[in-house]
Specification:
Distance between the termini: 100 Å
Helix content: 55-70%
Strand order of the largest sheet: 1-3-2
Largest sheet: 3 strands, antiparallel
Number of helices: 9
């Protein structure tokens, strides 16, 4: 029979060997998991870019109704995209269709946001109006991250239309400085832009609304004055 100390040493040796094997396998599994995540992340980015193309640019084919378009928006017989969505409700509709498409493709909202981030920064391919529409759709898709992007677009070097859209985005997040920036744009002679502030009207503080009303009273059209006065009552 084996001595007790030898049996104990043998058991301890086998235990240590088992532990080494366990941690080796665990390490390999972890590395494989991390590698798989990295590949998945790269694949998701590529998939998101392909998925986003008709949503950004629209589709060059005839449509009879919204259901004919991947973006969910048919206008004048063609499928519109983010770059041509010239109304707020259009951007919101496209954002809703995009959210559904991402879920169906097993992609995250963040994958689409990365594509929008690149498109927003592309001032060579996209004019300021198009970049403003990108930001507006981004806001409908994810207000928080859109607000962060908008913060960097409030400077004087940003083109007016894009800066205006950035200000609208920030106002909905309670940014009082952005609200003052919008008021200054109206005061500088662009009074009719107040039409586009109607959806954000509840987010302005009372003194800010009073300032906008005073500007519109002085230089706005009768229709705009009536609309704002009615909302404020």
């Amino acid at each position: 029979m084996m001595r007790a100390d030898r049996v104990e040493a043998l058991v301890l040796f086998k235990f240590r060997l088992a532990c080494r094997r366990f941690f080796s396998v665990a390490r390999l599994c972890l590395l494989a998991l991390l590698a798989g995540c990295a590949v998945k992340s790269a694949d998701d980015t590529l998939d998101a870019r392909a998925l986003m193309t008709p949503f950004l640019e629209g589709e060059e084919r005839f449509c009879a109704e919204d259901l004919d378009c991947r973006s969910g928006l048919c206008t004048w017989g063609s499928c519109a995209g983010i770059l041509s969505a010239d109304r707020g409700w259009m951007s919101e509709k496209i954002a809703g269709s995009l959210r559904t498409a991402l879920e169906d493709a097993d992609l995250e909202t963040g994958d689409a946001i990365e594509v929008l981030r690149v498109a927003l920064a592309d001032d060579t391919s996209h004019v300021p109006m198009q970049r403003a529409r990108i930001l507006r759709t981004w806001r409908a898709l994810d207000p928080a991250s859109a607000g962060e992007a908008a913060q960097r677009l409030l400077g004087e070097s940003t083109p007016g239309l894009l800066r205006f859209e950035a200000g609208r985005t920030r106002v909905t997040l309670g940014d009082r400085e952005a609200a003052q920036g919008l008021i200054e744009m109206l005061r500088a002679g662009r009074t009719e832009l107040a039409w586009f502030l109607l959806p954000e009207w509840p987010f302005f503080a009372a003194p800010e609304r009073a300032a906008i009303l005073a500007i519109v009273e002085k230089g706005g059209t009768p229709e705009l004055r009536e609309r704002l006065t009615t909302i404020e009552r």
